[in-house]
Design goal:
859 residues, ten-stranded mixed beta sheet, seven-stranded mixed beta sheet
Length: 859
């Protein structure tokens, strides 16, 4: 008989055990081994059955066991120590509080918006790298004492659970998550009533959301949930699934995340006394509407749209994670228009203003599509990609928003992602610590790696057994699983989402050659694979099925394994136990790719194409680079053939021989050297702590300073100035350029060390010299006369306007390099409150009507 309603009854702990509640409700336990060990000792079997979730564990522990623990002095001493340790962690000064160089520049609080957060498997609100990155960002901010607060959605089904049919086809399951069984607390008003966040839908329909609070160490995480009784059926379904539904469903999710998220932040700060955020960080475009809600707040206080827009931009940071336009959420113009305005949400803002922020009004854009990333960039004064290569790709991809500027001048920087070591490092590795790896004897380091590999083998066999039982196999036909994987064989890991660009099946390009590598009599390899395809991606599901069918072959099934239902719990076992982590995406489509970072923290070597973070930090001491067949001239089939062959060659000729090359002591000395260098040299680079410190110093602190500088008066002044500049700019021109070589050279040839004296006449169309900067741009030129490695030299005004309204600018240009050299001049808007000269996307360059008295090309 099925229950008509489900709810949870929480246990009442004996008084001496009450600190267990606080320990369970703060997600710091997810990265604190001592706290997890304490909970495991409460009920080891219950701990395993709960999946390592303290909240579920405490809800299932027998009363008699709790009574025994309440009188167990040894347990109570450990409990007191754990509770005291958490208190010290939460209250003691950290890195952020210790920064004294520029305390006035540090924001009092930062709000970090993301559609998903991967904190722990016990709170399954993530699908892949974006969510795991967001979770690591919060954890590292907590460790550093950065006053961050997270804002997201609580999905009733989370992301889907994955299983396989007998034929190897991915099947999705959507278990219902009960918030009362999760480490969450509902945000309530002072009188105990649950907080409700309202949104207005077209036709006067309301959308209400409650707010759940998770505590991630020092960092509060607010999650909005539309499954409340006040909503109609359709509105209750808004937060049903992560990345589910059609366009309108996704739009409503993103409105709730952005607009509702800001309202949840205001409610939380008002009720708890938490400082209001000075900086708002949008993790991908999904939460871009948060900027519009903040504009609405300022308009309600009397500001006009332009002033509010400038004030909001100043304190906003936008991070893009996709290297391809197809990875961005884009909505039909009319769909967006219908959800805003007087009859829907943000009635104080004209619909055309909303649309203008997201429309692709640039060459190559789709005129009827509203682009969430474009809106994110237009609402943020500071933006970044997530690796050096991805920053370059992003500048090229979004260059249309800054016409007249070269891609390298586009104001998108990069901060390379990092991973949270306490979350992803095996306890044995953590206990040794990075400093000891440089002194650890080879035998001990190798034994550590063997121990981790053995544990992975045990884990894989159990998961494989469970998977085959789900596929319909009987116990009698599964005896072969006891021989799956060998603790002494070179083990390769590959686990991630399964979009086509990540190329799950590149390893199957030549099945016979792969089989030879797996079954090599002296130097075999074994591979553990995991990954989920999006439920709507049949192409990805076919890739999974192709891999599974190969892994089902009795000849190789003991050497290649596919594990379904990849998630945090599985990942935390995979990374430490593998010897090599494989990543073979299409370059440059991997924005960062942090799985290899997590593997490296455990001494696992990387084998990857030079993409994302590996392009930045690859070194032969740490692993191997798979050669790529880049270029438009190579078709996809040929490219994959070439790169698969390169992968096989590396495995056969370099990687396996090094792993099995044993010295007189029986140890693979050169392999151990690579493991040691990975742990001591690469490990510190890939940390989320390094990443968050960079965000603070390079983005958050400058954004806070800009936010403070743009008070209502300054924001209004800047908005008025920009309007004046835009109106006048069509008349701003470069009319005449003269260049005189000093000292003069025979035939006008230029020599290293000489100087060009530039005289430039410009029209400013009524603008003052203080409104612009006239620059010489010079550097080496390529075969198309494009300036590379440019130097920018400001020129100075020397006279007032002449009879024709032109001004004269002059300045020297030093010829400090040899080879093909060229220059041009340009005019840019300038204002002390601009974060970048390219911010307005306006520049004036010499045109067809310009005259040039003399030009010099140095060779």
């Amino acid at each position: 008989m099925k229950a008509i309603r489900r709810f949870s009854v929480r246990p009442v702990l004996p008084e001496p055990l009450r600190p267990l509640n606080r320990l369970a409700r703060n997600l710091r336990w997810s990265w604190h081994p001592e706290t997890r060990e304490l909970f495991e000792s409460v009920d080891p079997e219950g701990w395993r059955e709960s999946g390592g979730d303290p909240v579920r564990l405490l809800g299932a522990v027998p009363v008699s066991r709790l009574a025994d623990l309440a009188g167990d002095r040894s347990f109570l001493r450990r409990l007191t120590a754990a509770a005291d340790d958490l208190h010290d962690y939460l209250t003691g000064p950290r890195w952020y509080q210790g920064r004294t160089a520029a305390p006035s520049g540090l924001p009092a609080a930062i709000a970090y918006f993301s559609p998903e957060f991967g904190i722990t498997a016990a709170l399954p609100q993530y699908s892949g790298g974006l969510g795991i990155l967001a979770g690591d960002h919060l954890k590292a901010a907590s460790d550093l004492g950065v006053p961050l607060m997270g804002v997201g959605l609580l999905y009733r089904h989370g992301y889907f659970r994955q299983s396989l049919s007998r034929e190897g086809w991915q099947q999705e399951h959507y278990p219902v998550l009960d918030p009362d069984e999760l480490p969450l607390t509902q945000l309530c008003e002072a009188d105990g009533r649950p907080v409700r966040i309202p949104l207005a839908l077209p036709g006067g329909r309301p959308l209400h959301a409650r707010v759940w609070h998770a505590q991630v160490g020092r960092v509060p995480l607010l999650l909005l949930d539309s499954d409340v009784e006040e909503n109609g059926h359709g509105e209750r379904e808004v937060t049903d699934r992560l990345y589910g539904g059609g366009s309108e469903h996704r739009l409503l999710q993103e409105m709730l995340l952005g607009i509702g998220g800001v309202r949840a932040v205001r409610a939380y700060c008002g009720l708890t006394g938490h400082p209001d955020p000075e900086v708002f960080h949008t993790n991908e475009g999904h939460a871009g509407f948060q900027g519009l809600e903040r504009i609405r707040e300022l308009i309600a206080d009397g500001a006009d749209f332009g002033t509010a827009h400038e004030a909001v931009r100043a304190g906003t940071v936008f991070t893009t994670h996709t290297p391809v336009p197809a990875g961005i959420d884009r909505f039909d113009r009319e769909l967006v228009a219908r959800h805003f305005g007087d009859d829907a949400e943000l009635p104080g803002i004209e619909v055309e203003r909303v649309l203008a922020l997201g429309m692709e009004t640039y060459p190559g854009g789709e005129p009827n599509l509203f682009n969430m990333a474009v809106m994110g960039l237009r609402l943020a004064q500071r933006a970044n990609g997530v690796s050096t290569l991805h920053g370059r790709v992003s500048r090229e991809m979004f260059a249309g928003l800054w016409p007249g500027f070269d891609p390298e001048e586009v104001p998108i920087t990069s901060i390379t992602n990092g991973v949270h070591a306490p979350t992803w490092t095996a306890p044995e590795v953590t206990r040794l610590g990075a400093r000891q790896f440089g002194h650890l004897p080879d035998a001990e380091l190798w034994e550590l790696r063997r121990t981790l590999r053995k544990r992975l083998v045990t884990e894989v066999r159990q998961r494989l057994y469970d998977s085959w039982r789900q596929r319909g196999a009987g116990t009698a036909e599964l005896g072969w699983i006891d021989g799956v994987l060998d603790p002494g064989v070179l083990t390769i890991g590959f686990a991630r989402r399964v979009p086509s660009y990540k190329r799950l099946t590149l390893m199957l390009r030549d099945p016979d050659r792969l089989m030879e590598l797996l079954l090599h009599p002296e130097r075999p390899i074994q591979i553990v694979v995991a990954g989920k395809a999006h439920p709507a991606d049949d192409g990805g599901k076919r890739l999974v099925q192709e891999l599974v069918r190969f892994a089902d072959d009795p000849r190789v099934r003991h050497r290649l394994v596919f594990l379904p239902d990849y998630g945090m719990g599985m990942a935390q076992q995979l990374y430490p136990g593998c010897d090599v982590w494989l990543n073979n995406p299409l370059r440059p489509l991997e924005a960062c790719g942090t799985s290899g970072m997590k593997a490296a923290l455990n001494g696992c070597l990387n084998l990857s194409v030079l993409d994302g973070w590996w392009d930045e930090w690859y070194d032969p001491d740490f692993g191997w680079a798979i050669p790529t067949a880049d270029g438009d001239a190579i078709d996809e089939t040929r490219r994959d053939d070439l790169e698969a062959t390169a992968l096989y060659d590396l495995l056969e000729r370099r990687i396996a021989p090094r792993f099995y090359d044993r010295g007189p002591d029986g140890l693979p000395g050169r392999w151990i050297d690579m493991v040691r260098r990975t742990l001591t040299t690469l490990g510190p680079k890939v940390l989320a702590g390094r990443m968050v410190r960079e965000y603070v110093e390079r983005l958050y602190a400058p954004a806070a300073r800009s936010h403070r500088a743009l008070d209502p008066v300054a924001a209004a002044e800047l908005a008025t100035w920009k309007s004046r500049i835009r109106d006048a700019w069509p008349g701003v021109t470069v009319d005449h350029v003269e260049a005189q070589l000093t000292p003069p050279a025979p035939g006008g040839a230029a020599e290293l060390g000489s100087t060009l004296s530039l005289r430039v006449r410009v029209r400013l169309a009524g603008l003052a010299p203080a409104d612009v900067e006239v620059q010489a741009v010079a550097g080496r030129v390529d075969d198309t006369d494009r300036i590379t490695d440019a130097t920018h030299v400001p020129l100075k005004p020397t006279t007032g306007p002449d009879a024709e309204g032109r001004r004269l600018y002059e300045g020297p240009l030093a010829l400090d390099r040899t080879g093909p050299f060229g220059y041009t001049v340009r005019i840019l808007p300038t204002h002390h409150l601009l974060a970048s000269a390219a911010e307005l996307g306006l520049t004036a360059l010499p045109g067809d009507s310009m005259t040039e008295a003399a030009g010099v090309l140095m060779r």
